Structures are given as C-alpha cells and as structure tokens.
Amino acid sequence: MWLKLFFLLLYFIVLFTLARIFEAVVWYETGMFATQLVDPVTLSYKKLKTILECRGLGYSGLVEKKDVSELVEKSGELTQGELYSAIKKQKEQTEADGSSTTHFSGEVHFYELVEDTKDGIWLVQVIAQDREALLSQSNWGKMVQKVSQFGIRTGTFNCSNDYRSCIKRGWQRSTLIMSVPQTSASKGKVMLKEYKGSRVETEQIFRWMTSHVAHRIKTLHHSEQLVEEWRSDPAHPLKMFLFARLAQPPAFFSSLSVKFTGRIEFIFVDVRRWGNYSSLSEIGVTRSPAYILKMPEGIYHYGNSTGEFLSLAAMDTFLRSVQPEVNDLFVFSLVLINLLAWMDLFITQGATVKRFVVLIRTLGTYNSILLVSWLPVLALLQLPYLDLLHGYSLKLLRYADTTTLASLVRADWTFYSSHPALFLSTYLAHGLLVDYFEKKRRCGTRSQEDSRTNLEWLGSLWDWYTSYLLHPIASLQQFPSDHSEWEDDPNFLFEHLAFPDLWLRPLVNMDYIKTLPTWRLRAAGQSGSEACCEKADEETRSQHSDEERKEPPHGSSSHKRSLCSVNFNSQLPACGDVDASGGRQCACAAESSGNGSSLSADRAVKDNCVVSDCVSNHQHCDWSMWPCDMLQCSECVVCLETFVSEEVLMGLPCGHAFHQQCIVVWLAAGRHCCPVCRWPSYKKKQQRAAQSSSTDNTVQD
C-alpha cells in the first residue's frame, strides 16, 4: 500500500514537472507565457468573435472590429492561455455533432430531467403534432453547440409522442422552452419561459436566454448598495463580485450563478454610471473590469494567477476548489483510489494474466472500501455538532487554494483533462518504469511464482477456484464448538474423501501451523537418566543377541517388552505390563489401517528405537512440561526415532506429538492430517477429561 502511494505521488510530481517543461518550451519557441496579456486590437475579427462566444457576450449589432475589441476589453483582460483555449474549444465543437441532445419520450421523462432536477438550465425545442420545428436541423445544431459550452442542456419534445401533455401545457404550436431556477436557494422552484420573438435566429435566441439568466444575479448601480452588500453576511459567507461597464454580465458568469446556487452568491456591479469611485478604491477595486471573490478571510482577485481564464471551465474549477461540495470530494477520492489501484498492474510481477487478475481484485477491494468508508462520513456531516469543524476545514482549504501553488495545480488539472491522451500515455510510461525497477529490485529474490507462464498460473487459479467451490476453506472454517466426535462432523467426510488426492488437492491456509503447541522435552534427573540409559542399553544388547540365536518368527511376542496399546477409540496410547527387571517401558506406535502400521511398530522395536537417552522411560521423564491435552509417548512416527532430551516437539489437535521439524515438513508437503489417526491438522478435536485422567493414572502406576 505504501509503495503504491509512493509511486502515485512520484507520478504527480512528474506531471507537475512535465507541465513546467512544456511552458518553458513554449516560451523558448514563441517568447510568450500563458499569463501574458494580449492586446485585442492586434487580433483578427474572427478571433475576437471566438473570444466573445466563449465568454457569452452578444455581438450581433457590432460590425466594426473596433467595437468588438472594446467589448472584449470591457468584459475582462485577455491572456495567451485563454486565447489558445478558446480556439481549441471552437475546433472541438466544429468537429462534434449534436448527439448530446436529449429526446424526451413523454411527460414523465420531461418532468424528471427538467422540472425535478432544479440545478441547471434547459433549452427544449417543442415540435407540435403534424407541424415543423421552429429551428431547422442545422440551426438547432448550431444552437446546441453555442449553449452547451455554458453548461446549458438541450432537448427536443415531440408532441406526437405525448399529445395530451402538450394540450395540457398549452403547446399548440412549435416553440422553444427554457427552464431556469426561479430563486437563489438550492433546489428552488423552476420556471418555464417560452420564446415569443419574431426573429428566429441563433444570436437572437441566445440573447433572450442570457437576459433571463442574468435576472437571477443581483445587480448594483449605486455605491450605497455596494456598501450594504459588502458587509459580512453569515448566510452568504462567499460572494463573487463582477465590476464591469456592461449592460449585463457575461453568460459564463450567469451560468455559474445557477451552478453554485446556495454555495456562492454572484453579484454584478454596473459601473457605467458610477458616481463615487472612492468607494471602489476603499474595498480594493482599482480597475475595471474586475472579478473579486469576497471571503471571510479576505478578498481574492480572480484572473491574476496561472490558469485563471474568463471561461466557464476555468472559473468553475477555481470555485469548486474554494467551496467544494460532498460530491466533488467523492469524485476526487474516487479518481485517486482508482489511480492507486491501477499501480498494482505494474508492481505485480509474473504472468500477464496474473497481473490483470490482481488488478481486478484490487479495484474491487479499493472501491468497496471507499464506498463503505464514505457512509459514516456522510452521516457525520449531518450532525449539527460538527458545524464548527466543517467551517474550520473550509477555512483551511480556502487558505490553501488561494496560493500560487494551488493555481498551478488547477492549471495543470485543466491542461491534462483537456488532453486525456497525454495523461494516459504519461501514466503508462510511468507504470512501465515502475515495472522495470521492480524487476531489477526483485531480480535476486525472484520466486517460482513470478516465473510461471500464463497457462501455468491459470491452471493454479483454476485449482484454487475449484477447491474453493468443492472443499471448505480451513482459514475461514470455525472450529466445532460442540462435544461430538469427528464422525458427526459432515465436513470431515469431505476432507477425508479429498485427502487421497484422486484429482484435486484441497488448498489449506498454512497459517494454522504457527498456532500449534510446541514445547521442549526435558528429563527428570540427569544422573539417574544416565544410569538408566546404561541399564537399558545392556538389556537391549542382550535381547538382540537372544533374537539372533533363537531367530523367532515375525510378529512373535516371546520377549517381555512393553508396547503402547491404543485405547480410547483407538487413539490414546497406554503402557503395558511390567517386565522382569521391574522397569516400565512405553513406546508410541502408529496405529493405521492395514498391516503397514504393525510392521512399522515391530521394525521400531527390532531396530532398538524404543529406548534412547532414557526419555522413553516414564520413570525419568519430566511429564510436567508435557501439555495436558497431548498424549504421552516417546517416539516420533514420522522419522521413527525416539525423543531425546532438549528436543523441540510439536503437537496436533488430535493429541499426538512429533518432532517439530518432522511434522512441519509433513504438513508443508500438503498432508494436512495427523500421521497416526488421519485427523485434519487444522481442526480442533474435543478431548475427554476422563480419558486424560485415566491415562495419567496408568502412567503413575
């Protein structure tokens, strides 16, 4: 996780550096920066019209170039970056078609999108039944391109689909309908206005729309009104002022007032007939036009920093960063978490199929965690006790977003979002570099898993999937809490059937080995143990010589030796009779199905493995160090060697003990069961207290 965060932060630094390199290259080739001002007089008439269309100002009555350039100057200063952005946007609109227009199917569809949304502006062309549309197909396409750059959505309503609704609303002829929120409150009422002009022209219709939208903005004509509005208002802490010599504000400014309804109040100050200019200088307005954001922390002059153009997209990005809503923060976190998850495609080493499978898993996990994490955040934001914390958070955010670094980040965000191919190519190049360095870093410790081919990894994935479907997963399985025997557990039947590995081996998590009990075997007395060992060796040698002379048949019991007989459901070993020397001997033989286990026990006795270092003698073994739920024995049935003092032993849930090294190798090979009784090594087995107590009494006797 931290490695992916580091690589993602490194990628953002690369993007920031690359943007500065692009600026340096442009300055070297043209000698201009994006923030450099442009004199409108030096531009052509076509470029001036492009600037006015992007700002949303009408120029239908202006024929001379001088008048058009003056209108550009009155609406705001022009920079090289805004000029480039306006020309690029015009080319994109020319290449695009009018496919973004919504076709309403009926009354319900119209109500849901237009009247019930209440947070946008709509322009709908109503086509009466058996009538022609008010605008032709080509003129409607031009209208869609003109208004869509200001966030105005368009649609067509054909009365042939729902004639009764048209009669109810009074749409007897083809017309244009515009919907605008009526109040400045969030989710306010929506009013529908019908175009009744005599001239059916694109520019005339656009001027009709902008005039109605501009009525929503509070317009000031006198200094007394400005002083009153400049005072701090707790209900509207943020106010966006436009000081200009215009009849009405630009369309992008009016459209933003609808978009930020309830968050930021937009005010237009008409200074054409302003009498008291000293009131402007007192509040910090030294030139006109000026876009000023008034905050509780102070005022901010918009347009003086990098990327702050007089366009809808640029000012929308700035205002969203200053006063974001919850949806903005959620989208931002969603983008970051998905960029972080896609880093797994390059960090993961191995087959290509493995990379994509890990990527899909990471995408699902991260997005699920993100959605679940946002639920308590949304609940906490509704609490009134957190209003103070919410206010301080926004204050810190405004302090950070009004810095020069924040303006550079916003400019880079606008640049890369308008060039998605460049963003994706740089992300891919960064990912390939991460993949290369990861291969170099893991070159010395490359595992077998990383060297698998696609088919081999798919085969292992299929084995895991089928095992997950057909067999219980040990890591997720709860130990039985009842006192029933293992025969009553239905899961044991599946485990027992799967163990022969006829066609599939069940996959078991190896973490349970760490929780198995381990202890060190100790003798009761060191001196007595040495004497006992010498006596045991002499008896063993004499018995061995007698066996060579007599050569008894296999399986004979002529010698008096003590073997462990399996009692208590053929699982608990107990000591046998006392031999001639009066000593007690006890060995644990593996009781299994068939004759193989009895042969192993005879072989263990024949090879003198029953006694060694006197640990097999219960009289000199410190059984207090032995776990109470483990069966007492002296031999490891995996290596067929007796336990030696100071050796580390490990026990299984069934109660049998072995050498730690032997049983770990046994379990790591995929044999997740006891070598003696075949009980699953990851399942807890209920031991009876009566059995343990009877075993202890037998040993003490």
Automatic annotation (TrEMBL):
<dbReference type="InterPro" id="IPR001841">
    <property type="entry name" value="Znf_RING"/>
</dbReference>
<feature type="compositionally biased region" description="Basic and acidic residues">
    <location>
        <begin position="532"/>
        <end position="553"/>
    </location>
</feature>
<dbReference type="InterPro" id="IPR042494">
    <property type="entry name" value="RNF103"/>
</dbReference>
<keyword id="KW-0479">Metal-binding</keyword>
<feature type="transmembrane region" description="Helical">
    <location>
        <begin position="329"/>
        <end position="347"/>
    </location>
</feature>
<keyword id="KW-0812">Transmembrane</keyword>
<dbReference type="GO" id="GO:0005783">
    <property type="term" value="C:endoplasmic reticulum"/>
</dbReference>
<dbReference type="GO" id="GO:0008270">
    <property type="term" value="F:zinc ion binding"/>
</dbReference>
<dbReference type="GO" id="GO:0016567">
    <property type="term" value="P:protein ubiquitination"/>
</dbReference>
<dbReference type="InterPro" id="IPR013083">
    <property type="entry name" value="Znf_RING/FYVE/PHD"/>
</dbReference>
<keyword id="KW-0472">Membrane</keyword>
<keyword id="KW-0862">Zinc</keyword>
<dbReference type="GO" id="GO:0004842">
    <property type="term" value="F:ubiquitin-protein transferase activity"/>
</dbReference>
<keyword id="KW-1133">Transmembrane helix</keyword>
<keyword id="KW-0863">Zinc-finger</keyword>
<protein>
    <submittedName>
        <fullName>Ring finger protein 103</fullName>
    </submittedName>
</protein>
<dbReference type="GO" id="GO:0036503">
    <property type="term" value="P:ERAD pathway"/>
</dbReference>
<dbReference type="Pfam" id="PF13639">
    <property type="entry name" value="zf-RING_2"/>
</dbReference>
<feature type="region of interest" description="Disordered">
    <location>
        <begin position="532"/>
        <end position="562"/>
    </location>
</feature>
<feature type="domain" description="RING-type">
    <location>
        <begin position="636"/>
        <end position="678"/>
    </location>
</feature>
<feature type="transmembrane region" description="Helical">
    <location>
        <begin position="368"/>
        <end position="386"/>
    </location>
</feature>
